[in-house]
Amino acid sequence: MVEIKGLKIYYKTLRGDAKALDDVTFTINDREILGIAGESGCGKSTLGNSLILLKPPMKYVSGEVRLNGERLPIDNTVEMRKYRYKKISLIPQYAMDALNPTRKIGGIIKDLVGQHRVKYEEIEGRLHERLRMVKLSKDILNMYPFELSGGMKQRLVLVISTLLNPDLLIADEVTSALDVSSQKAVSLMFKEFRDEKIVNSIVFITHDIAVLYQIADRIAIMYAGKVVEIGPTEEIMKNPLHPYTKALIKSLPNAGIRHTHQKLEGIPGHPPNLINPPEGCRFKDRCPFASDECLNEPPLVEVEPGRYVACWKVKGR
Amino acid sequence: MLEGEGKMIRVENLTKVFTSGGIFSKNTIVAVDGVDFEIKKSEILALVGESGSGKSTIGKMMLKLLKPSGGQILLNDKDIYKIKNNKEFYSKVQGIFQDPYSSFNPIFKVDRIFKLIKQSFKKEVSSSEWEGRVEEVLKKVGLNVGDVLNKYIHQLSGGQLQRLLIARALLMDVDVLIADEITSMLDASTRVDVLEALLSLKEIGASILFITHDLSQAYYMSDKIVVLYKGSVVESGSIEKVFSNPMHPYTRMLLDSIPQLDRKWEEDRISVEDFDKSRAAWKEGLCKYIDRCPLADLNCVRPKLKLVEEDHYVACVKM
Predict the structure, then answer these.
(1) Nearest to A208 among B193, B221, B259 (CB)
(2) Taking the complete model, does pTM exceed 0.95, yes or no?
(3) What is an example of a GO molecular function annotated in this UniProt entry (chain A) (predicted)?
(4) How far apart are CA B4 and CA B41, in angstroms?
């Protein structure tokens, strides 16, 4: 289980700190796929990256992260080395394009596990078995990354990043660059890796809520550095409570809707500047329900068992 | 015939072959393989398929950015490669691409960009009338005049820029617009505004080629659809008919894979690509989809598009 409490991660800029992650609190349960969705710039990738490596200009401000009760030294890049890849593994955005083009895939994997003092021979059997799980032939170990298609590379990256059976796998936009057919295959393989207990929990970051609906157990919606709503997938999709979640889901074209029958609606305006975010609720300038009470920041509170929303207008609080 | 009724763009037996390699080994890749379709006035045609299926190559050829290896593209019954005056051609046909930031000159402000269109294409319009028109089209695509006119490109969001490009096409009163993945870089909340702006271009009578890999969007926007697989059309026709009754195994697989908001994926039906058996199959004159098709056998010779019902064509020998 991973507990994140009051986490603040800022980016240093010349004009002041950009508050990319501002007081974020939630837990990732055992055996769970937690989906994180939101527009670009909402802090979803910052969240994933901060659990692995705080690269400048990213800086730790406050808050803590606990993995199975143990406090993670996320503010200490050297100490974190013990956890990276072994306990927490990250598939960053565009990971599939980061495979060394001059090395064969087998060689890349050998180098990688070597860095973590694991002999290739020890994990070779496991590697072959996992490749079979993602429907790749073991011949690819003798091939170069450019010989694989995008979907194949993404499946390979899944295998590589989970070779040491991490507790937590963070997948950042792993299906965004793929075609629908590969998107389905890759997403379901993540689910299979969780079901087969290869990884304990998965954080699946994406802007595509429709994919989350397919595979996530719970969904967290982020807006401008804050978690605004979190709850079971089915309930978030069928009965969104936060005005932002509502608008976001309304803006998605679902198969079976034509413009002549039903007009989709966008969300007017754009997200606030995170260097000087507005006082109170950060969504209030775009929110149709905003009133004076929104000048105070709404806390994320449990409105129904397991459902948390940060909005003054939501009944039941 | 009424004036303007017959205006359309038609693609006939369009083919593009790329060659790579040197003197000793020459590889040829057939990126587009005998594609036919037409887009009438006020019609949106969705061109869908996976990456590498040839969607963008077709778009580029229709914009005269890439010369076809065979076949022709007819704009109002005239071969576009016989229109020698490019200015005349581009005043009728325009393209919008995935990355709006690379479509504008970053050292000009937006009002200057609109003035340049007047200078190049609409010299006969007076300045004051032009300003009025600019305001009108900006309103039409949902942009606030004060928000955009005095800004540089880097000060605007991707959604605003894509809408500016549509406004530009509206101003030029184009006959044909090629829209190549215009929403894939945008967030869900701004994507809708761009799609709505595109629909306003359809209203003024433009023929629109809507290239996308997002099938839900294709259905939302379009009147007709062409499904491409490895450069060949596997299914085409009215979008209602293709979506309600997909016949080709590839189209079925694609529609099955759409992540929907009210129905979960069927987990037993996963289709993954394997190694390049396909190229070998293609050489043997068999169906290009043979390596992934659940129905395939060795009788699957290269199929031709056949009419299965009114306004619905399928290329599969099993049909």
Answers:
(1) B259
(2) no
(3) ATP binding
(4) 8
Task: Pull the structure tokens for residue A25.
Answer: 């609190």
Cβ contacts of residue B147 below 8 Å, gap of 6+?
B160
pLDDT in tens, A216-273: 999 999 999 999 999 999 999 999 999 999 999 988 887 678 888 888 888 888 889 8
8 Å CB contact between A274 and A265: no
Cα–Cα distance between B139 and B64 in angstroms, integer? 31
B257 touches chain A (CB under 8 A): yes
Residue B184 identity (one-letter amino acid): S
Cis peptide before A298 (omega within 30 of 0): no
For CA atoms B214, B216, B222, B227, give the dihedral sign: positive
Residue A264, SS3? coil
Q: Do A180 and B254 touch (CB under 8 A)?
A: yes
Cα atoms in the Cβ-side hemisphere of radius 13 Å centred on B76: 14
Fold of A2-309: Rossmann fold (3.40.50)
Eight-class DSSP state of A73: -
Which amino acid would we find at residue A110? Answer: K
Contact A42, A224 (CB under 8 A): yes
Other C-beta atoms closer than 10 Å to the C-beta of B149 total 18
Partners of B271 on chain A (C-beta within 8 Å) are 181, 185
Chain B CB contacts of A40 below 8 Å: 187
In the sheet with A70-71, reading across from the earlier edge strand, the strands are A16-28, A2-13, A58-67, A70-71
In the beta sheet, which residues pair with residue A88? A84, A168
Neighbour-count burial of B316, counting CB atoms closer than 10 A to its CB (0-12 exposed, 13-18 middle, 19+ buried): buried
Whole-angstrom distance, CA of residue B304 vs CA of residue B253: 20
- Segment B123-152, tens digit of pLDDT: 899 999 999 999 999 988 888 888 888 889
Amino acid B118 reads: K
Q: Identify the structural domains of chain B with CATH numbers, from first to last.
A: 8-263+270-314 (3.40.50.300)
Structure tokens at B297: 């056998």
Per-residue HEC secondary structure of chain B comes to CCCCCCCEEEEEEEEEEEEEECCCCEEEEEEEEEEEEEEECCCEEEEECCCCCCHHHHHHHHCCCCCCCEEEEEECCEEHHHCCCHHHHHCCEEEECCCHHHCCCCCCEHHHHHHHHHHHHCCCCCHHHHHHHHHHHHHHCCCCHHHHCCCEHHHCCHHHHHHHHHHHHHHHCCCEEEEECCCCCCCHHHHHHHHHHHHHHHHCCCEEEEEECCHHHHHHHCCEEEEEECCEEEEEEEHHHHHHCCCCHHHHHHHHHCCCCCCCCCCCCCCCCCCCHHHHHHHCCECCCCCCCCCCCCCCECCCCEEEECCEEECCCCC
Token pair, residue A63, equals: 């808050």
CA distance A191 to chain B (A): 10
DSSP structure class, residue A200: S
Which run of H or of E encompasses A19? Answer: strand A16-28
CA of A280 vs chain B CAs: smallest distance (Å): 22
Consecutive H or E run containing A115: helix A105-115
